[in-house]
Design a protein that fits this description.
Elements lengths: L8 E3 L2 H12 L3 E8 L9 E7 L4 E4 L11 H5 L4 E4 L2 H12 L6 E3 H8 L6 H9 L19 H12 L1 H14 L3 H11 L24 H21 L9 H10 L4 H6 L4 H20 L14 H21 L3 H4 L2 H10 L4 H4 L4 H15 L2
Helix pairs in contact: 4-7, 9-10, 9-12, 13-15
């Protein structure tokens, strides 16, 4: 049964933001979450930031505040623990939109994964520990629309309201399971979202590795994908809401020349009426232009590296089954690939930022790799 909670504090003015920052700066621990509009806009952006302390819940409106730099010291302060659930996506979005750097986080979802919980969604945790049921219908709401409804505000505040209590419970369970050391070093590694994101590929390059498309078809696809991006940008909506990938691929294979051809591909009458001419023009360009070149294939690992990888995967899977966790909890993928590539001689260096795993599994890994 949901307790009766006071309304969350809406933060949409400079004085309100200053009051929030003053409160957060004096907290040893606070909960954080974000809501974005990835399903409703061409360029996703953070549309709401939720904070909770033991005393208050705050909802920060980035769309009304043109500068959130005052929050920078909060996220970067190693003396203030920031509690997230499924932190990776939130950290990426906050870094992308506001340039925040991060120190000292606790990820309740990852803590549950290390404990081997079968269900690691926040809704499952709230029901399990606090008997709170979340309205899942709002997960796909348009968080960029204003004003937010009362239901949206209540949904958003529940994403952080119980996180500090949940974090305390999970730390106790991690300590009892002798896995707190694994969690702490994973939380520290999660902060390494800091830095510059790699450049995004051209839209068509996502399909460049498909061998069921000829170079000519890939060239047509390049023009179709670029047209879809232009339309999506113009409408400020995600590209898949203009036309889905599957139909784009069918167009690339068939190279439609008439509106009737688009009907045969099962584009809707509305799609044909609004954008049919643009897609036909794109297909015609792709049929005439010089063909694209596929990116060169990645250099395959040598035979010895592949053998090491197979051995490590088999050991990791067996160990994970014994611990009743997923395999990457035992040995995260970056370590797995580096060890397979470089072997046991570099074990100490590769796992220098994972001393708990090095101590726990180092001898077994060295034995498996023959070092």
């Amino acid at each position: 049964m949901l307790e009766r909670l006071p309304p969350p504090v809406w933060v949409a003015t400079r004085p309100a933001l200053e009051a929030l920052v003053n409160d957060l700066a004096h907290q040893p621990r606070l909960a954080v979450d974000t809501e974005s509009n990835s399903l409703h806009a061409y360029r996703e952006q953070v549309c709401l930031i939720q904070f909770s302390t033991p005393q208050k819940d705050y909802l920060v409106d980035p769309l009304a505040l043109n500068d959130l730099a005052a929050l920078t010291p909060i996220f970067a302060n190693p003396r203030i623990e920031k509690v997230f659930h499924a932190a990776e996506y939130d950290l990426i979005c906050l870094r992308r939109d506001f340039g925040f750097n991060f120190a000292n986080i606790f990820d309740t979802m990852h803590a549950e994964r290390i404990l081997g919980c079968e269900k690691v969604g926040l809704d499952a945790a709230l029901e399990k520990y606090f008997n709170v049921t979340v309205n899942k219908r709002l997960q796909k709401a348009d968080w960029g629309a204003r004003p937010l409804t009362r239901d949206q505000m209540e949904y958003a505040r529940l994403d952080t309201h119980y996180l500090i209590l949940l974090r305390g419970q999970l730390q106790r369970e991690l300590e009892l399971a002798s896995r707190w050391d694994l969690a702490r070093e994973d939380f520290a590694r999660a902060c390494r979202v800091n830095g510059t994101a790699p450049a995004s590929p051209e839209p068509w390059e996502r399909f460049a590795g498909r061998r069921d498309l000829t170079l000519r078809q890939l060239t047509v696809l390049r023009e179709l994908a670029a047209t879809r991006e232009e339309i999506a940008l113009r409408l400020d909506r995600p590209p898949f809401k203009v036309i889905v990938d599957e139909k784009l691929l069918v167009m690339a294979r068939r190279v439609p020349a008439t509106l009737g051809d688009l009907e045969k591909i099962n584009l809707s009458p509305r799609q044909i009426q609004r954008w049919g001419a643009e897609f036909l023009a794109a297909a015609a360009r792709g049929a005439e232009l010089e063909t694209v070149r596929r990116p060169p294939p990645a250099r395959p690992p040598d035979e010895a590296a592949l053998k090491r990888l197979d051995k490590l995967k088999a050991w990791r899977k067996k160990t994970a089954q014994q611990m009743k966790v997923e395999s990457d909890v035992v040995l995260p993928r970056p370590y797995l690939l580096s060890l397979a590539e470089r072997g046991a001689d570099d074990l100490q260096h590769i796992m220098q930022d994972s001393p708990a795993r090095l101590e726990r599994f180092g001898a077994e890994i060295r034995n498996i790799l023959g070092g």
